[in-house]
Amino acid sequence: MILDILGLVLILSAMFSAWVTYRIVHDHLSTSGQRVAQTILVWLLPALGAMMVLHMQRQNPEPSTGRYREPPEPGDDYGMTARSVRNCNEDVENNSQNGGGAGSD
């Protein structure tokens, strides 16, 4: 019974490592040295190495159109940062508390 379970675990681990090796070989974004190192890692540390390689492997990138993106619209030239908005709000609150306002002098 224990040998059957151990055999099943070994077979599943070998199949998982073989699948990850297949993905490594067909990864065209990695250099040949990276592919060799990843394959060695997968087979030296069967389950852990395969999971590490799958986690680090890049997803397929989106195909490029061969053109740069359009630049974003600049919008308002007088853009305000969060700090400048906070300062303006504080100035307005201070003026209203002091009884002052625009043109009250």
How much is the average pLDDT?
79
- Secondary structure class reads mainly alpha
Distance, first to last CA = 95 Å
User: What is the β-strand count?
Assistant: 0
Low-confidence stretches: none
N-to-C order of helices and strands: HHHH
| Biggest pleated-sheet summary | none
The helix content is 55-70%
Q: Given the structure, what is the number of helices?
A: 4
In terms of DSSP E residues, the strand content is under 5%
Computed CA radius of gyration, to the nearest angstrom: 30 Å
Using the alpha-carbon principal axes, give the shape: elongated
Task: Describe the model.
This protein is mainly α. The chain has a domain of 55 residues. The chain has four helices and no strands. The mean pLDDT is 79.
Structure keywords:
61% helix; mainly alpha; 105 residues; 4 helices; single chain; 0% strand
Task: Map the helices and strands.
Blueprint (H helix, E strand, L loop, with lengths): L1 H24 L6 H13 L1 H11 L25 H16 L8
Helix pairs in contact: 1-2, 1-3, 2-3
